User: Which sequence fits this backbone?
């Protein structure tokens, strides 16, 4: 079984050549509300992050992979496993698809690939995501990918408009 790729896309390790695109995505303030970023990243910090990405998920408790078109290796997004907990066999999932490639089914394909890797290779019991209530696109994506909305964390994140609820989406490996 080939993990991390299908006919259209593949998920690969970070490369030094990814610096410019990661710099663009990490410093897009419109995306900050979807994650934990509150300030811009320097090119140096991203370069260091790429260099450290060679470390094992068991050491760093996270894994970031680039989503690329298989035919030309063009980066179109990233997928993260974070808060990796091998004892309890779970990890969080974060996904970013470049705006130019959204609405093409790439997110669903990517979530399927990371699920197979997490459940069949890392032998995890569950994946989870914390998604702001207002991020209807991500909620729909995770629901269509088999995740269930299992909890609501009330007034969990502060926004310009006040506090926003977060939904906890979970995918349980029943095998």
Assistant:
């Amino acid at each position: 079984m080939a993990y991390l790729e299908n006919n259209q896309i593949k998920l690969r390790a970070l490369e030094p050549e990814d610096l410019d695109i990661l710099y663009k995505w990490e410093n897009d303030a419109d995306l900050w509300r979807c994650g934990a970023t509150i300030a811009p990243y320097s090119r140096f910090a991203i370069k260091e992050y790429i260099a450290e990405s060679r470390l094992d998920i068991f050491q760093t408790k996270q894994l970031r992979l680039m989503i690329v078109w298989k035919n030309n290796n063009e980066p179109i997004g990233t997928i993260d496993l974070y808060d990796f907990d091998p004892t309890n066999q779970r990890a969080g999932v974060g996904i970013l698809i470049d705006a130019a490639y959204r609405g093409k089914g790439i997110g669903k394909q990517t979530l399927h690939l990371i699920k197979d890797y997490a459940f069949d290779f890392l032998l995890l019991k569950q994946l989870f995501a914390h998604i702001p209530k207002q991020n209807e696109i991500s909620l729909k994506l995770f629901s269509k990918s088999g995740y269930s909305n299992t909890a609501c964390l009330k007034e969990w994140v502060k926004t310009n408009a006040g506090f926003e609820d977060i939904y906890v989406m979970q995918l349980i490996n029943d095998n």
Residues 9-172 form a domain with the Aminopeptidase fold (CATH 3.40.630.30). DSSP finds six helices and seven strands in the chain.
